[in-house]
Amino acid sequence: MHIHRAERIWLVFGVSMLAVFLAVITTAAVVDGFVPPSHVQSIDPTRVSQTPPFDHPGLRKVGPNAYEAYYIARIFAFTPSTIVVPRNAHVTFFVTSADVEHGFSIPETGVNAMVTPGWVSEVSHTFSTPGTLLLICNEYCGSGHQLMAAKVIVR
Ligand code: CUA
After folding, report:
1. Where are the beta strands (DSSP E) in the chain?
2. Is 148 exposed, middle or buried (0-12, 13-18, 19+ CB in 10 A)?
3. What is the pLDDT, as a whole number, of residue 33?
């Protein structure tokens, strides 16, 4: 069957658009894969202590029952070492590393994030049960890794 010139142009156009589409989704997949999805913001890891808001790590109240907690992870401790929140507080944690890769995990909750130097990890949780929760580094980071822990106290 004879293919008209116009049909051939549309065929070439269609194949080209398919190629462009595939290139776009492939690129998007590669960019997404570049950092874990919990890393939303970049930061200079050598200047963490001078970079707001990490120059004043700790807890901030941002609304009724809503808090933000800024943490610096460095071998082998978290700053702040303890936070105290009321029952039913919804806390968004922002965590960055001043040195190597760490973990940020509160095993009794769903809070679990990798902390990569150069990036700010974000994870949030509503603390509905009073008690003292252990916050641990669950990513091997060196000789003091097992000692790297902090506390979240829910009142
Ligand atoms: Cu920090 Cu393991």
Report:
1. 39-42, 58-63, 66-74, 77-79, 82-85, 89-97, 102-106, 111-115, 119-127, 131-136, 149-154
2. buried
3. 45
- Helix or strand or coil: residue 146? helix
Whole-angstrom distance, CA of residue 123 vs CA of residue 145: 21
Q: Which atom of ligand 1 is nearest to the CA of 76?
A: 1
What integer pLDDT is reported at residue 5 of this predicted model?
A: 65
User: Could you tell me how far CA 145 lies from the centroid of its own chain?
Assistant: 20
Question: Ligand 1: distance of its center to the CA of 23 in Å?
Answer: 38
Residue 66: strand, helix, or coil:
strand
Whole-angstrom distance, CA of residue 93 vs CA of residue 32: 22
- Nearest residue CA, atom 1 of ligand 1? 102
pTM above 0.85, yes or no: no
pLDDT tens digits along 73-129: 999 999 999 999 999 999 999 999 999 999 999 999 999 999 999 999 999 999 999
pLDDT digits (tens, 9 = 90+) for 141-154: 999 999 999 999 99
Q: What is the pLDDT of residue 23?
A: 56
Backbone φ and ψ for 66, nearest 5 degrees, come out as -115, 130
Quote the ligand 1 centre to 87 CA distance (angstroms). Answer: 28
